[in-house]
Design goal:
Blueprint (H helix, E strand, L loop, with lengths): L7 E4 L7 E3 L6 H12 L4 E5 L5 H12 L3 E5 L4 E5 L9 E5 L4 H12 L4 E5 L10 H9 L4 E3 L8 E3 L6 E6 L4 H10 L7 E6 L5 H13 L16 E4 L9 E3 L4 H12 L5 E5 L12 H7 L3 E5 L2 E5 L8 E3 L7 H7 L7 E4 L11 H12 L2 E4 L4 E4 L7 E3 L5 H10 L6 E4 L11 H9 L4
Length: 439
């Protein structure tokens, strides 16, 4: 039965080491940034390797609602975008973003910089995800946002243009707010300065945004901080993105589940072509986390390989820069020979679900001892684990991460596997093919 038609899926324990090469579909984070940049660029952009999943389809549908012309070849994973050459069209538009955080945040900033009136909304969970920091930054630049119900949460109205100036973020809840302002900054009527005060959650995603802006012809200025940190970013405005050819990398976040699968099954090996030290995605650093736990890791510019060791060790680690990898690491930690403490991940409580709470509940079902605080989770491995039906909370990363647990624990059932359609519709088919011994 097709994956999108079933209510649960059982994960078969691995019966023999596997050796496979896997290339996940294109990065959601890169695809949605590329679509947003191409939409407001001058001329055509040809995006290859693009991801077609729920989150990216929300962006595609929203941009079409805003009048952006796109030619889509899903079989070849290619999208040709005819850019608007600047702001979106004047008029009244209603945009529904489901639970796609990048879509609603990037488009809120771009719509604020455009002359029309734009209403943006999402599903129930999206209405619980904060937008106040982004609204404050847009207001500091002279733009307008009005919240219809709860202050700081969708649905919202925006539009009318952004005059420019300076805004600041201090200990921001999400790097997506910063990326949204940066993407929209060239559409402002005068220069924009983004001041970053304090630690930047998921900083690699901001650096990804800056690199992609440069590829599309806008070069933000980064005055030296003395420590290689992002502190002040200046964008000249008004300026114009240029249409271009852009190849989307495989999704490093989704590659993590295959890397973890090899790490927890001694003697197994996984190779991920297309990702390596030159990747735009910070989540490739998860390979180094597995190295710290004892896995045998090889990485060059365009390839990652991991072999499962005889034993894994727990660790204490700050995952603030790559918080989307916490669920994967928490499952790997089940099979370590000592506890694992993951710290500085407060923003996980604001994701598709409260991921720290969800992890605590589901890991305990399997038999682990787990303790969470406002911004940390500690996993104490058990000597034995039992079967469990894992609830996924409509969170794709819960489903994919706990699939890894089923490779070593008999009787792991993943409820609602359809939720992986958010970023990886074919995940379970690819996962099962990967772990099946070849004769």
């Amino acid at each position: 039965m097709a994956e999108n038609q079933i209510d649960w899926i059982d994960i078969p324990p691995v019966i023999a080491p596997f050796d496979a090469s896997v290339q996940p579909p294109g990065s959601k984070s890169i695809t949605n940034r590329a679509l947003a940049l191409a939409a407001v660029a001058h001329g055509d952009s040809v995006l290859t390797g693009t991801l077609f999943a729920d989150d990216t389809m929300r962006m595609i549908d929203a941009l079409r609602t805003l009048g952006i012309d796109m030619k889509i070849d899903q079989a070849d994973r290619r999208i040709t975008v005819t850019g608007s050459g600047g702001a979106f069209a004047d008029g009244q538009f209603d945009i529904f973003c489901q639970n796609a955080g990048t879509t609603i945040r990037f488009l809120t900033a771009l719509c604020a910089a455009s002359p029309g009136r734009y209403r943006l909304d999402g599903n129930l969970r999206m209405r619980q995800r904060p937008m106040g920091e982004l609204a404050a930054a847009i207001a500091a630049l002279g733009g307008r946002i009005e919240f219809e119900a709860a202050n700081g949460y969708p649905p919202l109205m925006t539009g009318g243009g952004i005059p420019g100036g300076a805004c600041q973020f201090e200990h921001t809840q999400s790097s997506q707010y910063i990326s949204a302002i940066l993407i929209a900054a060239p559409l402002a009527r005068a220069n924009v300065e983004v001041q970053l005060r304090g630690a930047v959650t998921s900083e690699p995603y901001v650096r990804m945004t800056l690199a992609m802006m440069q590829h599309f012809g806008v070069c933000p200025s980064l005055p030296p901080s003395g420590h290689g940190e992002l502190k002040i970013i200046r964008v000249a405005a008004p300026s114009m993105y240029r249409g271009c050819a852009f190849a989307v990398e495989p999704d490093a976040s989704n590659a993590s589940y295959f890397l973890a699968a090899a790490a927890v099954t001694p003697g197994s090996r996984i190779a991920i072509p297309g990702l390596g030290t030159q990747s735009l995605q910070g989540d490739v650093l998860f390979a180094d986390v597995l190295r710290q736990m004892g896995a045998d890791v090889f990485m060059d510019h365009t390839r990652i390989e991991i072999a499962g060791p005889k034993r894994l060790n727990g660790l204490t680690i700050d995952m603030n820069t790559i918080p989307d990898m916490v669920q994967t690491l928490a499952v790997v930690a089940l099979f370590a020979d000592s506890p694992t403490l993951i710290v500085n991940v407060r923003n996980l409580r604001l994701k598709e679900t409260d991921r720290l709470s969800a992890l605590e509940t589901e890991l305990r079902k399997l038999g682990a001892r787990v303790h969470t605080t406002a911004d940390s989770i500690e996993i104490h491995p058990a000597e034995t684990y039992g079967p469990a039906a894992i609830d996924t909370y409509d969170d794709h990363r819960m489903a994919m991460a706990f699939a890894v647990a089923g490779l070593r624990i008999k009787g792991v059932r993943i409820n609602d596997p359809r939720c992986t359609a958010k970023t990886y519709p074919e995940f379970f088919a690819d996962f099962m093919a990967t772990i099946t011994p070849r004769h």
